[in-house]
Amino acid sequence: MPTPRKSEGHPSPSTVSAVGLRKSYGEKLVLDGIDLHIPAGTVFALLGPNGAGKTTVVKILSTLISPGAGSGEIRVGGHDLATDPQTIRATIGVTGQFSAVDGLITGEENMLLMADLHHLPKREGRRVAAELLERFDLVDAAKKPASTYSGGMKRRLDIAMTLVGSPRIIFLDEPTTGLDPRSRHTMWGIIRNLVSDGVTVFLTTQYLEEADELADRIAVLNNGKIAAEGSAEELKRLIPGGHIRLRFTDPDAYQLAADALREVTRDDQALSLSIPSDGSQRELRSILDHLDAADIEADELTVHTPDLDDVFFALTGPSRVSDKPEENLR
C-alpha cells in the first residue's frame, strides 16, 4: 500500500529545514536561496532537470560539502549543520547515484565492514548484518562477491549498508537510476517500509512516476530556485488542461447535454463532451447537478488531470507557471 499522503500543511515538526540555502562554484550560482521544511516520517521528493542542483542539495544537507556564505540556518534532525555536523552524520544515511558497494568482497563482508565503521561490537555487527541481509532478500547471495550482483541487488545491498547505523533520516539520490521496472518497484516497496518505520526519506529522482507514487510533498528545482512545491495533486492543479469527459450513446441525450452545459468541446463523431475542470469535487458536483436538472444521464464520465510530466515541463521549460513563489504553492 502507498504511504498515506500528508499534503495538508506540515503535520509534524520539520526534521530537515533550510532557509535561504545558497551554493556557488566560482561565479556559477547553483542554489539561489532555497527554503526546505520536511516533516519527520515523510517522503520528500526533489525533482529537476540535469544540472539543476539536486545532488548539491543532498551533499550539503548530508554534510558532504559546505553551503555557501549567508545560507541562513540549516538543521537536520534538530541539529545545526554549521555547528554540529558530526552529530548529523551519526543520525543520517546516504545512498548516492553510484553505489558504495565494494565489488571485490562479498555482500556479507560489505555489511560487516559498515558495522565496523559504525563501531558496533563484533557480535552486534554480525546480528545487524544478518537481519538486514534477510530483510533485503540477500541471504542466498551473501557469500558471493558483490561484483556478481545484478543492479537491483547492488542497490538493495547499498541501502542495507546505509541502515546499519539505524538512521532516522535517509537521503536517496536517484536510487533507482538504471534499474529495470521490476527492481524499481521492489525499491519503492523498500522505501515505503522505511517510512512506515518512522524514517524520513529525502529522495531525488528523474522518474516522475516515482515521485508521484512515493512522495508526500514534491519540490521542483529549476535554475537554482524552487519553482513550485506541494503534493502531487496540488502541483497537477497548477497546469491548465484538466477536463471532465462525458460520453453518450444516445445522440439526443448528447445534444441535450451540449445545450445544458457551458464551455463544452464537442466530439460529434464520438458523441463526447469535454468540459474544462480542475478535477475538484465542487466542479464535478456542479456538472452532475446540471445534468440531473435537465434529466440527462451520461453513459460514461471520466476526469482527466495533467500528470507530473506536464508539471515538470511547464515549470522547467521555456515558460514558467509563475515566478512568484506564493502562486506556486510553496
What features would you describe in this structure?
By secondary structure, this protein is an alpha/beta fold. It has two domains: 14-101 and 149-236, 3-Layer(aba) Sandwich (Rossmann fold); 243-304, Alpha-Beta Plaits, CATH 3.30.70. Helices cover 34% and strands 24% of the residues. The strands form three sheets. A six-stranded mixed β-sheet has the order 6-7-8-3-9-10, sandwiched between helices. Helix 6 links the parallel strand 7 (169-173) and strand 8. The longest helix has 16 residues, at 181-196. The radius of gyration is 24 Å and the shape is elongated. The two termini are 28 Å apart.
Q: Identify the CATH homologous superfamily of the largest domain.
A: P-loop containing nucleotide triphosphate hydrolases
- Give the overall pLDDT as a whole number: 87
Instruction: Give the helix/strand class.
Output: alpha/beta
Main beta sheet strand tally, sense and closure = 6 strands, mixed
Shape: elongated
Task: Indicate the CATH topology of the largest domain.
Answer: Rossmann fold
Number of domains: 2
Share in β-strands? 15-25%
Flag low-confidence runs.
1-11, 319-330
Strand order of the largest sheet: 6-7-8-3-9-10
Write down how many β-strands occur, each being a DSSP E stretch of 2 or more residues: 14
Instruction: Just give the CATH class of the largest domain.
Output: Alpha Beta
Helical content band? 25-40%
The N- and C-terminal alpha carbons lie at a distance of 28 Å
Helix segment tally = 11
Reading the helices and strands in chain order gives EEEHEEHEHHHEHEHEEHEHEEHEH
Radius of gyration: 24 Å
